[in-house]
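Here is the promised in-class demo. Please do not try to memorize the tokens; focus on the logic of going from shape to residues.
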């Protein structure tokens, strides 16, 4: 049986049309706006941030390959994408994607893609809503520690936490200073170098 990554690769290989693939540079934005019909977006290469449009809140960083927009019951305007590295991606009409999925019986791969997306959203909700500022900063530090090196070594801990949590910079800096004084966090030029067990 195929694992999650293999299922998503199978789905992408079946849906992708080479002539539709575009590239964007680091920090450029990709949205689902501007289409006359509903589309899906396939990310082929790179690391991408999923952000909330109304306040630029960082939901999740993910590595390609990934697909968004296949779930008709999730509003695709809930998130826009920002390239953390150079990326390649394509857009495909949802009706066309569904036709291919039906013809090739790819619904298991679609469900795996849905489960992965939903689990990431639930993880964000569980860690970032209805918890104290203290707990949010701790959760963000653990999430930052788990990010790819290209993000950890280019994003200060304070910037990452502010983008992820929406907390004020002064609150974040105060808590980071406290954790450093307690020897639980090591920062170098604002970058997270080491993280001890936090409670």
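The designed amino acids, position by position:
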């Amino acid at each position: 049986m195929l694992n999650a990554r293999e299922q998503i690769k199978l789905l992408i290989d079946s849906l992708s049309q080479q002539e539709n693939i575009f590239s964007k540079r680091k920090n450029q934005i990709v949205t689902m706006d501007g289409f006359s019909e509903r589309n899906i977006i396939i990310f082929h290469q790179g690391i991408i941030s999923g952000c909330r449009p109304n306040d630029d809140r960082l939901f999740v960083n993910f590595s390609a390959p990934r697909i968004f927009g296949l779930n008709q019951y999730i509003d695709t305007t809930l998130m826009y994408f920002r390239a953390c590295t150079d990326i390649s991606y394509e857009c495909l009409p949802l009706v066309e994607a569904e036709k291919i999925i039906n013809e090739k019986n790819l619904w298991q791969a679609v469900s795996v893609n849905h489960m992965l997306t939903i689990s990431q959203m639930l993880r964000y909700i569980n860690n970032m809503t209805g918890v104290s500022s203290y707990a949010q900063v701790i959760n963000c530090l653990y999430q930052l520690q788990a990010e790819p090196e290209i993000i950890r070594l280019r994003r200060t801990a304070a910037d990452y936490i502010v983008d992820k949590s929406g907390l004020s910079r002064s609150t974040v800096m105060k808590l980071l200073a406290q954790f450093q004084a307690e020897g639980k966090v090591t920062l170098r030029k604002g970058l997270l170098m080491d993280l001890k067990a936090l409670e």
